[in-house]
Write a structure and sequence with these properties.
By secondary structure, this protein is α/β, with parallel strands linked by helices. The chain is built from 19 helices and 32 strands. A hairpin with a 7-residue loop joins strand 16 and strand 17. Helix 2 packs across helix 3 and helix 4 packs parallel to helix 11. The structure holds adenosine-5'-monophosphate-propyl ester.
């Protein structure tokens, strides 16, 4: 490891060490500024050059950006490429076939390594297998898999044949899975018999069966099942196929399907402010380009040397860009871990870093906070008990990282040696948009720092006018960029309304977050969502989704959900519930609360379980019938209501809602 020392210039500002500033991919602020200036001066020329240098095109593009149907922007459209070719074949052609692509660590600690050549073979065989059962270019394939080599191979195999994958997180319920099957009109589902997490086996195939038993799944022709545990599962020979049996007879090579850069690569569902999740659609060319650039710029990836470890599940965007595509497109070596950070104990991440000599580690603040707590209780799982000297860079994603967690991460995990890149981005942005470049940007705990080159951010008020620096407002991106969301699958109107609202002029991308830009440094601090979207453990949850799930319960008449600050999960779900009868108290309230929690878990998935449920005979409403969510937020925090409540229809209700069931 190079001797990387971050110098502490003044309290809470950390500048890159000389070593970083000299040898990083983006070395020094001048290099950063030069890129920004190039983007300013010749926007399309800037992107065209990067796209030509980074992506391997089958046929190069002649046109960079088509804005004629804005906001449905099109990038590099007449260029053709294949994402899987870019992630696998070209590394083999460049002589890196024997480099380890994935180090897989199973829940029980068993390790399996696959080289680029081996992964290529698996992907080709699976791609041929998919073709043999009739999956074609443009077809949608649902992937409902555990974390593992096969999950990534399934995504790559779809990309290879031009099928559009939609990965559903293995923690989502049959109902959530069903919703996504119907919305995508999927022709096939790739799943596993079961998954293993924290020493427990959890069903996957059984949940697929449950989803398929619901109406509207006629599009599904085939269910391909990877044998993970080998335990007995129900098997319908008409529809189900073992993945291992499907791929064994297949050829080891599969000519990639060359597709337009605008061909959809995947659809990934995320929560919005209505009850229905949005199918965010990304395009092959621009997405891949940005995955590669951010791997180089933010993570400073050195493919021949680094061991990269992003802890995200492939069911989330982070697991798409920084597990399934980015590291592979760069030809790097990465860790994929099947289990949970607390099994067999809360030292598991540190153990993985030590065992596999991880050099770049990327995780979520919620995990850091949970591990801070665990190591305060049990010194044996404290990072100091492990040799973490292989680390050179740390990253954070998914939610604001509070300065205390940042400092602990910096001191205890990075041993004051590793810069921390706090990366702000979204499912819709495809990759980092505001983030430090570790060889250039000075770090300030709690700030995601500066927009990446080519990302034209601004902060505006509700009518789209820029707000003065230092004042909070809405975060927007003023110019299209290659990895941006293309549309919401099947709902272009919602795409326009959600992301390019007329109130802001219809031509800037509205991120959905509030932010402040510092007067002097230009650094951004994200202040949180401006819509009804919660961020629980770095996972996006729509309040309406949870409310709809609650009111679907036969006992419930009405429900309102708000986020409540939480030490570990960032935000916790707090539900205010009105039953179709008088509000319960005592033991009965506790029992119904347990039932409702389990209900939500079944409707959406365990991640959506409310932490707190409070019952009342009504909800606080204005005279026009609008629920006063602001009051509910105050109640959830246990704070005194000091504001004027004269517009409240039913003030007496507030007393009831103070009680947690
Ligand atoms: O609120 C922001 C928060 O996560 C949201 C995006 O969630 P999702 O699409 O699930 O993607 C998560 C992984 C990229 C954003 O609108 N968020 C993400 N990263 C940060 C963040 N908030 C503050 N700081 C971050 N670094």
């Amino acid at each position: 490891m190079a001797e990387i020392e971050l110098l502490k210039h003044e309290s809470r500002v950390f500048s890159p060490s000389t070593a970083w500033a000299q040898s990083a991919n983006i070395a020094g602020m001048d290099a950063y500024r030069a890129l920004c200036t190039r983007a300013q001066d010749d926007y399309t020329g800037f992107w065209a050059k990067l796209a030509r240098e980074n992506v391997s095109w089958q046929q190069s593009f002649s046109h960079v950006l088509d804005e004629s149907n804005a906001p449905f922007y099109r990038w590099f459209e007449d260029g053709t490429l294949n994402a899987s070719y870019n992630c696998l074949d070209r590394h083999i052609e460049n002589g890196h076939g024997e480099r380890v692509a994935i180090i897989f660590e199973a829940d029980d600690g068993n390790v399996r390594k696959v080289t680029y050549r081996q992964l290529h073979q698996t992907v080709c065989k699976l791609a041929n297998g998919l073709k043999s059962v009739g999956v074609k270019k443009g077809d949608r394939v649902i992937i409902y898999m555990p974390m593992g080599i096969q999950g990534v191979a399934a995504m790559q195999a779809c990309a290879r044949i031009g099928a559009i994958h939609s990965v559903v997180f293995g923690g989502f319920s049959a109902k959530s899975l069903h919703e996504r099957i119907v919305d995508t009109g999927a022709v096939a589902i790739i799943t596993a018999d079961e998954q293993i997490r924290g020493g427990k086996t959890l069903p996957l195939k059984a949940i697929v069966d449950e989803a398929l038993a619901l109406p509207g799944c006629d599009s599904v022709q085939q269910v391909i099942v990877h044998k993970r545990t080998g335990n007995a599962i129900s098997f319908n020979p008409k529809q189900d196929l073992w993945m291992e049996e499907l791929i064994t007879p297949q050829s080891k090579t599969c000519e990639p399907e060359w597709v337009s850069a605008e061909h959809p690569l995947f659809i990934l569902y995320t929560s919005g402010s209505t009850g229905k999740p949005k199918g965010v659609q990304h395009a092959c060319g621009g997405y891949l380009l940005w995955a590669m650039l951010t791997m180089q710029w933010t993570f400073d990836i050195q493919p021949a040397k680094d061991v990269f470890y992003c802890t995200a599940d492939i069911g989330w965007i982070t697991g798409h860009t920084y597990v399934a595509y980015g590291p592979l497109a760069m030809g790097a070596t990465q860790i994929i871990f099947e289990g949970v950070p607390t099994y067999p104990d809360a030292g598991r991440f540190w153990d993985i870093i030590q065992k596999h000599q991880v050099s770049i580690f990327y995780t979520a603040p919620t995990a850091i906070r949970a591990l801070i707590k665990a190591s305060a209780i049990n010194d044996q799982v404290h990072p100091k008990q492990y040799d973490l000297s292989s680390l050179r860079l740390l990253g954070s994603v998914g939610e604001p990282i509070n300065p205390e967690a940042w400092m602990w991460y910096y001191q205890q995990v990075g041993q004051q040696r590793c810069p921390i890149v706090d990366t702000f981005w979204q499912t819709e942005t495809g990759g980092h948009v505001i983030a430090p470049m570790p060889g250039a940007t000075s770090l300030v705990p709690g700030s995601c720092t500066l927009p990446l080159p080519g990302i034209m951010t601004a902060i505006v008020d509700e009518s789209g006018h820029p707000v003065p620096a230092g004042q909070g407002g809405l975060l927007v991106i003023k110019r299209p960029w290659p990895s941006m969301i293309r549309t919401i699958w099947g709902d272009p109107e919602r795409f326009k309304k959600s992301y390019f609202p007329a109130e802001l002029g219809g031509n800037v991308y509205l991120a959905g977050d509030g932010a402040i830009c510092d007067k002097d440094s230009g650094y951004y601090t994200i202040t949180g969502r401006i819509d009804d979207v919660l961020n629980v453990s770095g996972h996006r949850m729509g309040t309406m989704e949870i409310e709809s799930a609650l009111v679907a319960h036969p006992l419930v008449a009405e429900a309102a959900v708000v986020g409540k600050p939480d030490d570990v999960t960032g935000e916790a779900i707090c539900a205010f519930v009105v039953l179709k009868r008088n509000h319960p108290t005592g033991q009965e309230a506790t029992q119904i609360a347990v039932e409702l929690r389990n209900w939500v878990s079944k409707e959406i998935g365990p991640i959506a379980k409310p932490k707190e449920i409070r019952f009342g005979d009504n909800l606080p409403k204005t005279r026009s019938g609008k629920i006063m969510r602001r009051l509910l937020r105050i109640l959830s925090r246990g704070e005194q209501i000091t504001q004027d409540i004269s517009t409240l229809e039913n003030p007496a209700i507030l007393e009831q809602l103070k009680q947690v069931a």
